[in-house]
């Protein structure tokens, strides 16, 4: 393997991580939500609102930290609306989630077009602190050849996502609060009878999940250079893929890291297929002969295969929260 | 009490009827009167929101409003149905709405509107409305045409600018992020024209094409531009896709770029050279005039299937950015532009262009007869032959010319 070919391969791996991490935010957020017994189909909209709010507030304060906090806050507000409608008012979760998506995208275009038409849309390159934090790399470690690029050269959001996924895993598996929250997802009436405050737990976890989705939205915005294009949204369907990835990852936030990368692998392959064929003409030359439409369909074909395989096993995935998607009405006990 | 209520209700209904009839009277008066630029009603069906600030719908909306302004048509005479999906029922409903408002001409801007527009134009009750469809291929002989443009001519000019940059940098590799490849004559002819423009100044130029199989996907556009720079070390990124992402990537990586649709120098002030752009208002003004000057049944007779180019001012390139362009770009581009406008020469012909500079620094065009060859060696036009612009208009161009590397 010559150096040039190796370089192309490393770029491919690098690109997989950079472009698929927003999915991890969405997936982890949705897993937390579903594990506490709510199916929130509003991931796309929540990410859009978190992203646009985080970006604008981050730029106006010229701080990525403030941007992240704002993205979380506005994501959590979406979660609050969803919780109020589904937990307190007992609205249908599917419909409410879809509404949140429509609402979120509407807010995104409303704010974006409003600011852009008056020339007030913030330009990322004019905010030095944002650019610097986005492009910052881990010192020393990122300079190691090969390993440095593959493991230590990402922006802080990538590491933050992995940390959040692992912490969420530990939280759900090993803490008392996590146990209570999972109990609500399995059988809220039983949890209630044991004295768990179902309503409060649902509110907290839906909002927490939505806050994490919000960071994912901000990531997508920053990755696209904060450029507002008028008729397309930064999130671009990633919210929906995140919902599919929840099942792919078996409601386990640690597996979600792996699931994200598998999905990202196929997603990135549709861009890098010709590059890899060019780098390794003997081994991977066939990649450039495959019709591009197949690459486009591959991630979804894989998801379909996983779903079919899961249902063939006949045994239900023990991690799937039984009460997910069903509203809990205390008087029904 | 009940009696009183029912009487009130009856009165209200009567009033409504009267108002409705009087409105009908107005409408009738309007229709029987002479159609002028003051009272013509323009209808438009958009794929996304009329409030967009960039992108495809924005470009068309801007074109229609600019044309109306130029013609002195009051802005309130524009009726819009926006966010209309490419779905026959949705488009038919939009047409009914616009026809109900009394529109005299209806524009549909998205490709997938073609069948619904074709059907509506054939209806007897809509025979007095002119229908005009962008980017499609269906038309009838009376009141339904389609329109598009020779954007490849502008791409040839952008190719010249990119080729000169590659000469200056001593790097023959150019990159091109394309929505689609040979599947669409629109994208394919653009890639070919850009390549031929680059080859006319740099005979060693190679254009690496990356197709993303989507008209608008910012993430993929960015990723594709990155891969072109990282893998093939290209020095200019051209694009046939909606967003400015490829230009942002080029600016960030320290290479140059040619955008599309709008002057992307705004997004990449030091790296963007020039962008092929559309002046949709040129057509919209022509079409509205045609609809006003003659009955709808004569519409197609007057305007035909519209396929304007540089000559009509329908397509052009954005002002060349001196901060990024190489020396001589402005001069050569304007020479070739004049040549194309004169109608003596067109891009896909058996005549190749090259340029020489005399001692005073003046450039002249040198024409050489040469085969137009695909990148697999097939001859499309023999040396000296006429341009195959038919292949672009009718959509049969499905090959890459020599110089394109698509694998």
What does this structure look like?
- The complex is a heterodimer of chains A (333) and B (407).
- With 333 residues, chain A is an all-alpha fold.
- Chain A has 14 helices and no strands.
- Chain A has one domain (3-332): ABC transporter involved in vitamin B12 uptake, BtuC, CATH 1.10.3470.
- Chain A has helices at 3-35, 43-61, 64-88, 93-117, 128-135, 147-151, 156-174, 176-186, 188-193, 198-223, 238-248, 253-279, 281-284, 292-312.
- In chain A, helix 1 (3-35) packs antiparallel against helix 12 (253-279), helix 2 (43-61) crosses helix 11 and helix 11 (238-248) packs across helix 12.
- The longest helix of chain A has 33 residues, at 3-35.
- Chain A is globular and about 70 Å long.
- The relative contact order of chain A is 0.20.
- With 407 residues, chain B is of the alpha/beta class.
- Chain B folds into 2 domains: 37-138 and 280-308, Rossmann fold (3-Layer(aba) Sandwich), CATH 3.40.50; 151-279 and 318-405, Rossmann fold.
- Helices cover 41% and strands 18% of the residues of chain B.
- A 6-stranded parallel sheet of chain B has the order 2-1-3-4-5-11, with helices on both faces.
- In chain B, strand 8, helix 8 and strand 9 (256-258) form a beta-alpha-beta unit.
- Mean pLDDT of chain B is 91; it is low at 23-30.
- The chains are: A mainly alpha (333), B alpha/beta (407).
- The interface between A and B is large, with 35 and 36 residues.
